[in-house]
Amino acid sequence: MRHVKIENLNVVYTEKGEDVETIKKRFNINPIFPIQKHTNNVCILEEYNNDICDGLITFQKNKAIGVKTADCIPLVLTDFKKVAVIHAGWRGLVSGIVGNALKQFANVKIAFVAPFIKECCYGVQEDFFNHIPEEFKQYRMEDDYKLYFSLEKALIDILKPHVQEIFQTSRCTKCDGNLYSYRNGDKIERMLTVAWLE
Ligand SMILES: [Zn+2]
What we know:
4-stranded antiparallel β-sheet; binds zinc ion; CNF1/YfiH-like putative cysteine hydrolases; alpha+beta
């Protein structure tokens, strides 16, 4: 488990063999996870009623929210007054979930990106590019006869104009070995990324 603290923001993400109980025990918190379906919906926790959404935002202190991922992007945004957590795979990313979360803030101070699959391991088929909007086609990468899509470059380009500081890890969920990866065969297990403000 990794714990990062930036001012009053806490972010925790789990590694293999750890689950929500590991987080609960260590931090004495009870995180709330949305019902995720690769949508672009971001729900406000204070109005949340088991709706389907892939992002949560809360204005309360010491209220932990989280997302479950295995290769998708776990993203935390904060202005130190409210905090958002987002689950973004390629579907969420190209349908604008990050923009939908950014809209809830006048000024995002910190974006923290927990590990996800990097372009080293995100091979795609040619027809993948028929399913994404034009502006995302620039994140196509090629070497020899293989095609890749860079979730990372797409994400950073979306965040940069709106966020003061972006923190991320270089870990790739598939290469790492100590993180759950759907593409590496972890079909059920999920990495948890949880955030709260003190
Ligand atoms: Zn990799």
